[in-house]
């Protein structure tokens, strides 16, 4: 039996493929390469194409005995989703609907889904627990929440069991140095900071310093991509073991402001990393910090790279050795 990884050529997906292969799983990747990189898929069977293509899905499910789907494929930028919400409803909600229809048609009953901290919106308290209020402040989070609900109803109606993983901010790179983060154009904080350190950008624009936080900049909970990858495998084990659906937060439980991340990156890279204060970015909540107690208890998940320094160090190794990402 194989595990189908959608979006497996992307940042978190490619790290998860490596993790699953190391655990002895048979992996199939489906990715339209709109953001992903063929070079990032270390091995396994690769289908290039779009999940919205029902015929392609039929082919993938017919040519392989798929036990479970790990669903990463999506658009995932907070700012862009505010500018172009319909793109997000199309590529996130419609895509998930199509995928689930394919799964139901072909009798595939397990799915691990990439949800997000953006499902919560402005938190009612910190750290955020899975049961806390969910009022997304951007369409991206709204589409992920809609998919979680779609999964709940599909469980009830068709017996498709799911684990939705609400990751906080994925960061870092695989310690093997061969895969890392390469988004074109890049919009995430840590790779942008490292591009400044590499001399590829003059400075970092800090999106707002008037938030209700100690230094006025937004606080996020950065979680290493390899720890996320491992959580997916543990989530699949839980589905195999219990056949019960569940939702988990995945973060380190510690928040860092944009300015604190810059300060730590200065230590790691030895570069002064100049910054300028810019306008707030629409859709950004001030503080997002996870309680991951539930994942630690139920999944026995233990993050291995849980300091910001380790996260920045692995990311810096990747960026230094691949200054053009997978391009060169
Ligand atoms: N990066 C983060 O901090 C973060 C945090 C929370 C949740 N997530 C979620 O995790 C998932 C992966 O994030 P990422 O940072 O690796 O993103 P990514 O853009 O690097 O990876 C997504 C992959 O999906 C592919 N894809 C997109 N739409 C597709 C479609 N319709 N058909 C086939 N392939 C398609 C892209 O080509 C890409 O390779 C996303 O669902 C995202 O919402 C990411
Ligand atoms: O040039 C930049 C880029 C980012 N930021 C700030 O840095 C923080 C982190 O931003 P970014 O790295 O873009 O991540 P988020 O917008 O927090 O979103 C990420 O983390 C979410 C979970 O918290 C995921 O759902 C999203 O997919 C993922 O992109 C935010 O406060 C941004 O405003 C800047 O100040 N300047």
Automatic annotation (TrEMBL):
Residues annotated as domain NAD-dependent epimerase/dehydratase: 3-251
Keywords: Carbohydrate metabolism, Galactose metabolism, Isomerase, NAD
Pathway(s) of this molecule: Carbohydrate metabolism; galactose metabolism
Matches recorded under CDD domains: UDP_G4E_1_SDR_e
Molecular function (Gene Ontology), one example: UDP-glucose 4-epimerase activity
InterPro entries the record matches: Epimerase_deHydtase (IPR001509), NAD(P)-bd_dom_sf (IPR036291), UDP_G4E (IPR005886)
Catalytic reaction equation(s): UDP-alpha-D-glucose = UDP-alpha-D-galactose
Coiled coil regions, renumbered to chain: none
Enzyme Commission code(s) on record: 5.1.3.2
Pfam families to which the protein is assigned, alphabetical: Epimerase
Co-factor(s): NAD(+)
GO terms for biological process, alphabetical: galactose catabolic process via UDP-galactose, Leloir pathway
UniProt subunit comment: Homodimer.
Family: Belongs to the NAD(P)-dependent epimerase/dehydratase family.
NCBIfam families: galE
PANTHER family: UDP-ARABINOSE 4-EPIMERASE 1, UDP-GLUCOSE 4-EPIMERASE
Protein name: UDP-glucose 4-epimerase
Species per Swiss-Prot/TrEMBL record: Desulfosporosinus acididurans
Organism lineage string: Bacteria, Bacillati, Bacillota, Clostridia, Eubacteriales
Name of the encoding gene: galE_2
